Amino acid sequence: MVWGVPVLPVREQVARECVNIAYGFFSPLEGFMGSADVDSVVRSMTLANGYVWSIPLVLDVSPMTLAYMNIEAGGSVLLTYQNQPLAVMDVEEIFTYDKQFLARQVYGTTDVEHPGVTRTYALEDQFIAGPITLVNPPVINPPFDRFWRTPRQLRQSFADLGWERAVAHQSRNVPHSGHEWLMKGAWLAAQAEGVLVSAVVGEKKPGDYIDEAIVLAHHRLREGGFFLEDVHQTSILLWDMRYAGPREAVFHALVRKNLGCTHHMFGRDHAGVGSYYDTYAAHEIFKQLPDLGIQPVLTLEWWYCPVCAGVAYEGLCGHRDNKQDLSGTFIRSIIQGGTEPAPLTLRPEVLEVVRECAESYGFGSPFVTEQYLENRTPVMSMHDMNCTCTNGNH
Ligand SMILES: [Zn+2]
Q1: Percent of the chain having pLDDT more than 90?
Q2: What is the distance in A from the centroid of ligand 1 to the CA of 317?
Q3: Is residue 340 scored above 70 in pLDDT?
Q4: What is the number of alpha carbons within 13 Å of residue 100 lying toward its C-beta?
Q5: Which of 82, 78, 72 has the alpha carbon at shortest distance from 2?
């Protein structure tokens, strides 16, 4: 208790959420939710004050830890990460909530095969709520540091670039030509000045693309001139996907609104997993939310069509029987096969950067392996607050 308050070490997910709350990614939230907000979000997809919000954000603690650390409502607690101070929470409430009910409402299922349901059931039984203050801003390590911008910094960069309309692209993939045209189509549809790639960087599982490849491949599209320099930028969002389908689509829209985006593109199966949600469930949910403060750009699929001899749009191309889906599986087979793809599926420039990332960051693989999970440089590190050196040369 060096800080004179109980100390609570938090896991990576919670640390990321603290950072997001502190920097305004999750505005208007100023801390982890109390029971009134959680219940309102779960039941009616709004905070208790009526503001639309779709995903509960809670800080879970076991009853044993609460008692052992003497954490009480009305007191403060120091949240630590990587053995360093991260944030102080003013504990306003300690409560429990029915996790099964939460899962059914948020994910539409209580099936433990659903990763969001699994994440919910893994929560400890008590939640502590209250505003947080960051006391030790984390360091974002290369190569992510140049893509890390707070909402305030992003809004400033939009202003500097003259972006009055910016359309967000949520990504956790290396961009193939379908993604590229999704972005270009949404940019046109929104009559936007800019496209913001907001790459989700968070918990990974074996087989996912490594974060470095996702971010640097998107950036390569701009470097390669496929987007003009002043109409495209890549940024990261520290977030653990819940795969909540339509509810997560709403959450993504709310976060990108906070980044200064006026529009957000939503393609097929946004934030879905398995077959839990209809392909265009995310499109449907926005019909109920006309005043969200950010405009959804709802798009169908882009595929490669040999008859059109190019990347074609589902809403235009009449050769559905000839199409080549630009599916994740197909693109992965190109990357793994080591053969050069047709330029209209995956750009050679993108493939090159993916292969470079495999060597530089992925221990030989562009996909997450156990070795990567164990040995990668963390995206986020903490300053050693016990360090007494004053020259700044850490
Ligand atoms: Zn066609």
Answers
A1: 89
A2: 4
A3: no
A4: 0
A5: 78
Instruction: For each of the domains in the chain, give its residue range(s) and CATH number, in order of start.
Output: 7-137 (3.10.400.10), 145-375 (3.40.50.620)
Spatial neighbors of 9 by CB under 8 A, at least 6 apart, are 79, 80, 81, 83
Q: Count other C-beta atoms under 10 Å from residue 16's C-beta.
A: 23
Long-range contacts, stretch 373-377, CB < 8 angstroms, 24+ apart: 373/204, 373/206, 376/210, 377/141, 377/142
Assess whether pLDDT exceeds 90 at residue 209: yes
C-alpha 319 to ligand 1 mean position (Å):
4
Q: How many Å lie between the centroid of ligand 1 and the Cα of residue 279?
A: 21
Nearest to 269 by CA among 283, 255, 256: 283
pTM (2 decimals)?
A: 0.95
Euclidean distance between CA atoms 87 and 227, whole angstroms: 39
How many angstroms is it from 313 CA to the middle of ligand 1?
Answer: 8
For residue 199, what are the β-bridge partners?
171, 236
Find, among 150, 5, 175, the residue nearest to 77 by Cα. Answer: 5
In angstroms, the CA 239 to CA 248 distance is: 11
Which residue matches tokens 């300053």? 383
Tell me how far the alpha carbon of residue 321 lies from the centroid of ligand 1, in angstroms. 9
Q: What is the pLDDT of residue 339?
A: 66
